[in-house]
Amino acid sequence: MRPIITLVSMATTLCAQPQAVGVFGQIGPVPTQVGRAAILPAPGRGPMQPPPPPEHSDCAIDGYVVNSVTGEPIPRAQVSLSGAYGQQATRADNSGRWGFTNVACAPVQVMGSRPGFLTNTGGFVMAAAMRPVTLVSGSPVHDFKVQLIPQSVVTGKVLDDQGDPVMNAQVSALTPRVVEGRRIWQPAHTGITNDIGEFRLAGLASATYVICVQGNSNPMQVNHGDATVMGESCYPGPVEGGAGSGMELPAGRDTRVDFTLHPIPAVHVRGVITDLPKNQHVGISLVRRGAIGGQGNVHPAMVNPEGKFDIAGVPSGAYLLQTDYFEAGKRLTARVPVDVGSADVEGITVHLEPGFTVSGNVRIESASGATAPALQSLGIHLAATEPMIGGGRIEWAKDSPSFTFNDVSPGVFRLEMFGQGKYFIKSAMLGGRDISREAIPITQSAGPIEVVISDDSGTVEAQVSGPDDQPTTSWLLLLRDGRAARTVHVGADGHAKIAGLAPGDYRAYAWNDVQQVEYANPDWMQQNGRAGVPVTIAAGQTAQITLKQQIAPAR
Question: How far apart are CA 72 and CA 326, in angstroms?
């Protein structure tokens, strides 16, 4: 049975909702005046030097709170005013009006909140709310509009093929996000059906979603003797179909999606763990991999004293069978890919093995003769290309430029280094391959990785303009070997500078929203990324480039 979907205008919310942050900056009429606000202590993360006393404390600001979609006033919204001299808070009246008087004349931030409106939308609303407003003595700010974005809500009911409600089914709202240049589905919100099979997912931002329901939300309670288990379903389409499988969820709307789940064969995944420590309890689990980036369903199971395990009720799909065990400070681990179809998967042998060691040496070349940084500060690490793979912990040798990565799990890795000013990894050779330029498989103890770090880096300066040929804010993205080498924000003057770049050939782009750029997707780049500018970075030199901002297609 096909799920039913209905769009309903947003009405009064039924239960407590997430708080909201307001977007502001427009001016309108003022109907009334609101009373004095309470003064709260300013938030802080540690001891700080207090600012000098303000020159004037007679400033004032007033305004109103509205729904960003309908433009209607929002009554009784919470409004806060914060800055270097503390924080004040008040509540808007029934017409959405608020105001502050006798406050310090200084830059401040205005934020609003109300149940039923969003806290943020991927950081956008929060960033907008952090824009400063400067209060000046003798010039009160009037009619300051705070806009709150209404939440989207998905409700529905889950029934079985006999029309009975399915209790404790897990319902997830998945939205596509770009991670390391690839768009994958990630959970935005999850919930559980109640005793009559109903669910409600609130606090969703306007975006593309796939709603998925899993009948067996607690696989540990699956009866191993059952011939069938409750299946799972996604609407409008499967996550394997990409972003085109999703539906657009408008801001401030209730969307209803009902599901009918059908029984499927209770597929078992059975096997044994070898070298299991005696009298120890070890857990094992199947984790969904692929289209949802390791964020999918998890099917756990216990291992009996003989090392045998039986994971029941597994839907078809691609999984990673994984287990970890810590003994005397050492980690024993196993990762086994498993593909599940309509038949039981039998006879899997899992070898529980200790993490291995990868060693390396560092040589620092300095073209300027500058004092080399402390090796421990370099931030060298093994970055795995797959989630849930351990790159190990680094340990530096005493009085020696050598290191080891301990407790490394088998996987595909690249050697990377956190930003260290002008220093960069010039090369990192392992087995004749440069592991800083390409990811390579490492399945057992290896090394040494011969790492050369240099300070003879180059710089790029970019000037970005919009369609009107005027400077504009943007994001500067540098790609090298198909990977994001650096990403920086470009200010309102359109100028950006990136130092500490390894010499070589890059391609530069200016995007309005770098979080939508699928640079690791060749088809996407062929369609949307042709406007990149090639740039060659030379040692000790600065390359000058000009770029036109590109608009990344939103999903």
Answer: 58
Q: Which CATH architecture does the domain made up of 356-454 adopt?
A: Sandwich (2.60)
Q: What does R_g of the chain's alpha carbons equal in angstroms?
A: 28
Q: For the domain bounded by 269-354, which CATH number is listed? A: 2.60.40
What's the rounded Cα separation, in Å, for the pair 354 and 325?
9
Question: Over the stretch 219-256, which tens digit does the pLDDT of each residue have?
Answer: 545 555 567 778 888 999 887 766 678 899 999 999 99
Q: Give the tens place of pLDDT for each residue, 101-124.
A: 999 999 998 999 999 998 654 444
Are residues 451 and 428 in contact, defined by beta-carbon separation less than 8 angstroms? Answer: yes
Provide the 10 A C-beta neighbour count for residue 504: 15
pLDDT in tens, 445-499: 998 999 999 999 999 999 999 989 999 999 999 999 888 889 999 988 999 999 9
d(CA 279, CA 129): 56
Is residue 442 left, alpha or beta, with left meaning phi > 0 and alpha meaning psi from -120 to 50? Answer: beta
Whether CATH 1.10.357.10 fits 152-263: no
CATH number among 1.20.1250.20, 2.60.40.1120, 3.40.50.920, 3.30.565.10, domain 458-548: 2.60.40.1120
Q: Which residues pair with residue 326 across a beta bridge?
A: 331
Q: Which CATH number fits domain 23-41+53-148: 2.60.40.10, 3.30.230.10, 3.30.450.20, 3.40.50.1100?
A: 2.60.40.10
Cβ(427)–Cβ(451) below 8 Å: yes
What residues form DSSP beta bridges with 464? 547
Regions of the chain with pLDDT less than 70 = 1-49, 119-131, 216-226, 241-243, 277-281, 290-297, 327-329, 387-390, 419-420, 555
Residue with tokens 């040692």: 539
471 near 494, Cβ under 8 Å? Answer: yes
Question: DSSP letter string over 178-223?
Answer: EETTEEEEEEEEEEE--TTSEEEEEEEPSEEEEEEEES-S-GGG--
Helix (H) / strand (E) containing 527: helix 522-528
Query: Residue 65: beta bridge partners?
Result: 146
d(CA 35, CA 24): 21
Render the burial of 245-273: b for 16+ CB within 10 Å, e for the rest.
bbbebebbbbbebbbbbeebbbbbbebeb
- The pTM of the full predicted model, rounded to 2 decimals, is 0.71
